[in-house]
């Protein structure tokens, strides 16, 4: 796709995501909040699509927007929560909230400032797209042989290079990696999730009185 | 004229414009086909219902001949003129047969005008928005029901490719590498419409209907996703166009009679494939909210379910959404299990070698025929089986289908590994 079109679409979807994220916090009705969260997730999925991570975007749509948020909506509707009124000013909450927001804003802005090229007054997305090949651990077939020079050491060393054949979708790539490089982690993680599910059933089960 | 022709060629030679124009053309075609099939499936539903229940069904709405009155009196009307022309006696056997078919009163459409007239009726009805509803969501809900099936249709392949001097055209609107997941993701979003319709009506029965719809759709989505995994293990791709191509050369999933389909492995694999088909088709029934799974609009306990408070076109768009979901569900079953657009027995390649456009046309007709057949099956089931009880529906999903699907995955893996 044309990089300019890609950048424009990115900004449109990112703006939509920000707007609906704002709606989650600002709207009074809990159902409206849940729905804005759903639309926020859908916009983020669109951003993923634009970045070429189609499977991630689809997973976001299926799992978060299609299942988890529907369950949240279900529960909110069942509880029949009335419109939320702003709590009377508890100064402790205010201080804590401002602190948390400040830390988050600092983290985000420092990350944004460290984006390659963002200091030169150029569009950071455009620069990221130019440098995408250097940053991405997935390499095209031509680059697969070259050793990676800039290892992101602060994130636990260099990721194993993955060569992508032409015409291969990112789904099969993801599957191959999950079941080769990360097989052990996946098994451990799935056991943890299974334990969680069993625990939830055990906690939620009604005990017979007889 | 010459100038215009060269201009057209220039525009088409630009890859961006070529892509845009062909995509828009395919989009319009798919949209038209789905909306036509919504109308057609309403007609099939009512005629088959009549047939099954041993009554005529809507067969009387034709194009009445009084529309032709300006062209002559009743004496000179087409039927008597036609009988006279062929020299048949006006009270003979043929004339009586024609009268019995009501040819003297109308142009027969076998009741096909009925859905159109129904649509017109719903369009002209009074639009009532009760005063107690939550208005924004009340208006949003029908859109959320009708929209997703139309969007999901984008990835369904309806014919193979043709090559033109300007580039190749793949006959599906978006040839995504994750086509199947796209259908799941988008059709999963239609649950919002039902939930919000139930909640925003601000009345008890619609609310219960909305809750039932939510629980049912989410549960059956899980079973549906698990039930197609054996199929994906066999085909090794999520691209629907590739899946149909494989079926065209190596035999449909359920009818492996040619190509690679005649090997031992494929015939042993038929068992998990048939299991998968049964589960997937049942889940499609549940996802489309059709009897025997129409718990959300069960008249006996919920008045009308989530659409009790709706009237006029908003009500109609719920029904159009339901029928569109049925059409897309049938298209998915046809694509995954019954060979999609493929004509079968190697006829696709032979036709494509002769003339690609003819091949594409034949495949498109074949796809529509298969779709019609499966829609007929949908309707047949609806008017044959009674409605399930609510707990039975949930048990069927969580205690039967999910376990069976997981077992089916393991069985397929074992067959793929051991039977060569």
Estimate the helix proportion of chain A, in percent. Answer: 55-70%
- The number of strands of chain B is 4
Taken in chain order, the helices and strands of chain A follow as HHHHHHEEHH
Radius of gyration of chain B: 25 Å
C-alpha termini separation of chain A: 67 Å
3D structure, described in words:
The complex is a heterodimer of chains A (210) and B (420). With 210 residues, chain A is an all-alpha fold. About 9% of the residues of chain A have low confidence. Chain A has eight helices and two strands. The longest helix of chain A has 26 residues. Chain A starts with a helix and ends in a 6-residue tail after the last helix. Chain B has two domains: 45 residues, no CATH class; 301 residues, no CATH class. Chain B is built from 17 helices and four strands. In chain B, strand 3 and strand 4 form a beta hairpin. In chain B, helix 6 runs antiparallel to helix 7. The longest helix of chain B is centred in the first third of the chain and has 38 residues.
Features:
A: 210 residues, mainly alpha, Four Helix Bundle (Hemerythrin (Met), subunit A), B: 420 residues, 2 domains, two-stranded antiparallel sheet, 4 strands
Describe the secondary-structure layout.
The complex is a heterodimer of chains A (210) and B (420).
Chain A: H1 3-26, H2 30-50, H3 54-79, H4 91-113, H5 124-130, H6 132-135, E1 138-139, E2 162-163, H7 170-179, H8 183-204
Parallel strand pairs in A: 1-2
Chain B: H1 2-13, H2 15-52, E1 63-64, H3 78-86, H4 93-100, E2 106-107, H5 113-124, H6 135-152, E3 161-164, E4 167-170, H7 179-188, H8 190-200, H9 204-227, H10 229-235, H11 240-250, H12 264-287, H13 299-302, H14 312-337, H15 347-354, H16 356-382, H17 390-418
């Amino acid at each position: 796709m044309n990089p300019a079109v890609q950048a424009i679409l990115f900004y449109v979807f990112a703006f939509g995501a920000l707007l609906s994220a704002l709606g989650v916090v600002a709207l009074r009705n809990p159902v409206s909040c849940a729905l804005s969260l759903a639309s926020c997730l859908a916009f983020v999925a669109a951003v993923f699509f634009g970045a070429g991570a189609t499977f991630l975007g689809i997973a976001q749509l299926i799992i978060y927007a299609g299942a988890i948020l529907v369950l949240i909506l279900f529960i909110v509707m069942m509880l029949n929560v009335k419109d939320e009124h702003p709590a009377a000013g508890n100064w402790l909450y205010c201080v804590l909230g401002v602190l948390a927001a400040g830390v988050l804003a600092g983290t985000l802005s420092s990350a944004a400032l460290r984006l390659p090229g963002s200091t030169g007054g150029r569009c950071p997305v455009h620069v990221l797209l130019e440098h995408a090949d250097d940053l991405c651990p997935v390499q095209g077939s031509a680059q697969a042989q070259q050793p990676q020079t800039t290892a992101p050491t602060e994130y636990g060393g260099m990721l194993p290079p993955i060569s992508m054949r032409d015409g291969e979708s990112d789904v099969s790539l993801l599957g191959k990696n999950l079941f080769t490089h990360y097989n052990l982690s996946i098994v451990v993680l799935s056991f943890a999730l299974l334990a969680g599910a069993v625990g939830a059933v055990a906690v939620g089960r009604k005990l017979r009185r007889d | 004229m010459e100038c215009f022709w060269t201009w057209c060629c220039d525009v088409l030679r630009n890859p961006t414009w070529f892509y845009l124009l062909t995509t828009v053309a395919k989009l319009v075609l798919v949209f038209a086909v789905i909306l036509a099939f919504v109308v057609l499936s309403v007609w099939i539903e009512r005629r088959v219902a009549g047939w099954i229940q041993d009554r005529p069904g809507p067969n009387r709405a034709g194009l009445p001949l009084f529309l032709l009155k300006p062209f002559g009196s009743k004496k000179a009307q087409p039927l008597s003129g036609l009988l006279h022309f062929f020299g048949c006696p006006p009270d003979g056997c043929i004339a009586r047969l024609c009268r019995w078919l009501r040819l003297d009163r109308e142009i027969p459409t076998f009741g096909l005008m009925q859905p159109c007239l129904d649509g017109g009726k719903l369009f002209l009805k009074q639009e009532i928005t009760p005063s107690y509803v939550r208005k924004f969501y009340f208006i949003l809900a029908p859109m959320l029901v009708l929209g997703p099936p139309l969007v999901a249709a984008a990835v369904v392949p309806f014919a193979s490719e043709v090559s033109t001097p300007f580039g190749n055209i793949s006959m599906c609107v978006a040839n995504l590498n994750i086509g199947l997941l796209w259908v799941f993701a988008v059709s999963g979003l239609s649950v919002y419409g039902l939930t919000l319709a139930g909640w925003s009506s601000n009345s008890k029965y619609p609310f219960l209907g909305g809750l039932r719809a939510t629980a049912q759709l989410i549960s059956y989505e899980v079973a549906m996703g698990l039930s197609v995994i054996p199929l994906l293990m066999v085909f090794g791709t999520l691209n629907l166009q590739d899946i149909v191509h494989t079926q065209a050369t190596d035999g449909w999933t359920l009818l492996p009679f040619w190509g690679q389909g005649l090997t031992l492995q494929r015939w042993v694999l038929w068992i998990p494939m048939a299991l998968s088909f049964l589960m997937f088709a049942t889940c499609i029934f549940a996802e489309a909210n059709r009897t025997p799974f129409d718990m959300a609009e069960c008249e006996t306990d919920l008045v009308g379910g989530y659409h009790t408070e709706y009237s006029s076109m908003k009500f109609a768009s719920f029904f159009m959404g339901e029928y569109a979901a049925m059409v897309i569900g049938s298209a998915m079953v046809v694509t995954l299990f019954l060979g999609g657009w493929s004509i079968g027995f190697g006829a696709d390649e032979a036709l494509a070698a002769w003339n690609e456009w003819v091949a594409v046309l034949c495949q498109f007709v074949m796809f529509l025929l298969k779709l019609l057949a499966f829609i007929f099956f949908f309707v047949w089931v609806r008017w044959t089986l009674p409605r399930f009880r609510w707990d039975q529906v949930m048990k069927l999903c969580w205690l039967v289908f999910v376990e069976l699907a997981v077992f089916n995955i393991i069985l397929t893996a074992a067959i793929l590994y051991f039977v060569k």
